[in-house]
Amino acid sequence: MTASSPVDSFESLGLSAQTLQALREKGFEKPTSIQKACIPLVLHQHVDVVGQAQTGTGKTAAFGLPIIETVKPERRQIQALILTPTRELALQVADEITSLCGSMKLDIATLYGGQSIGLQIQKLRRGVHIAVGTPGRIQDLIDRGNLDLSHLEYVVLDEADEMLNMGFIEDIENILQHTPAEKRMLLFSATMPRPILNLAKRYMSTYEHVVAEQTQKTTSLTDQIYYEVREADKFEALCRVIDITPDFYGVVFCRTKVDADEITRRLQHRKYVTEALHGDVSQNQREKILDAFRRKRLNILVATDVAARGIDVQNLTHVINFSLPQSPESYVHRVGRTGRAGKEGTAITFISPAEFRKLAFIQKITQTTIRRQELPDVNTVIKLKKESIAGALENLIESGEYQQHGDFAQDILQKHSAQNIVAALIQHFYRDELDPASYREIQRVVFEKDKLKPKAPFVKGRKSSGPKKPFKPANKRVKHTGSAPRKK
Known about the structure:
The protein is built from 18 helices and 15 strands. By secondary structure, the chain is an alpha/beta fold.
C-alpha cells in the first residue's frame, strides 16, 4: 500500500458490516497508516507481513481486525497466536481485540506468568479461538502438553524488537517449531535490527515489508529536552521538573529495580504521589498500581523498561529518562508514550558527563533533535509554584465552589486582616513546598566541547558506516524472499 493510495475509510478495506459497526461504536473514523497498509494485505493476499510501526499507531487493530474477520467461531481451536514481550502488553492486546470483536463471540485466552497456570489450562481446555501471551508462559504450556497449536492460521509477533532486547528470540524460535508450516506470520516492530530481519527471512517464505507513515522515529508532538547534571543531582533535578509543571502526569524511567524503588521511596518522602513498577511487583499489585495511575489517583509512575512494556496510558504530559536507556530503540519506545493522539508532550533526559556520547549517538540513530536546557534555580521554582497556586486559587474563586464557607470566612475577618489570614493559610498548606531550604543546590556541570562528537557506544568492533539513512517513505512495500523454507 503506497502513500498515495486512495484508501481513506474502513469501508474501503473490505471489512464486514459487523466489524464496521464495532469500529463505529469505538469511535474509529479513519484507518491509520499502518492499518491502511496491513489490513488489505492480510485479508486479501496470502502473504506474510513485516510491519514497522511505533507504539500508538494503531498496529493492534492492523493485525487484529483481519484475524477477527477470518477466525471461524464454530471451531473452538486456537486459530491465532499473538506473542508479546510483557504481560501488560498481552492484557492490552487481548482487551483491544475483544473490543474490536463487537457482537462476534470469540474466546480469547491471555497467557502470562504471574497468574495461576492452572486457571489458564482450564480456559484452554474449554476451547479458545485466539491466544495472546508472553513467550515464557507459552513455551511452558507447550512443554506441559496443554497448548495445541496444530490448527493455527496466524502467528503474530508484536513489538519484536523488545522481545529481542529481553532475550526471547530463542523461546520464539522454539514456539515456532510447534506451529504448522502453512500458517501466516505477521511481525510488528518499532525498529528493524538485523536479528529481527534474520528472523523474518528464516520463518517467512515471502513477506511484504510495510513502514508506517512517519517522517521521523519519534513524534513531532513530543518536545525532547536534556539537562546536564551530575549523577548525584538527578533526583533533585527530577523534583524541580515536577514542581515547575502544573498537572504533571508522567512516567519516570530508570535502569534497575533497585533504582526504581529508591527513587519512589525518596519521592514519597517528599510527599509526591507515586508508585514503582518493576519485575518484582506482583501481578495483582501491578494491576492495582496501573489502575490508580490511569485514574490519576497517582500522577507519577516510576518504572523500568521491562515493566513498562505494554502500558497504554493516555494524555501523559511527560516521560522522564532518569537513566539513559541502553539502546536507541528503547529511547524510541520510552518517548513514544507521550505526544500521542494529537496532544503535545515532553520527554526529558537527565545526562551526566559520562553519558553525553550515548545521548549524541541516540540522536544520530533516531534522527531527532534533543535540545539542551538549563535547570531552573530554586528561586525560579518557588516563583513558578507561587504562580501555580495563585492560578488555582483564581480558578476556584471563578467557580464559586467556596460560598458555603462565606460566614466562617467573615467571622475570621472580624479578628484578623485579610493579608494575615491568607499568609497563615499559605504557611499552613504550603510551608514546605515554598521553602527554598526544601531544595538542595545543584552543581553546574561543564561539558567539554570535544564530547560533542557522536560515538556509537552500544556496538563493539563495528566501524561507522556513515550517516544513518532516513526512514523509508510512508508504507513502502518491499517484497522479500526468504533464504530458507519455513520450519515446522
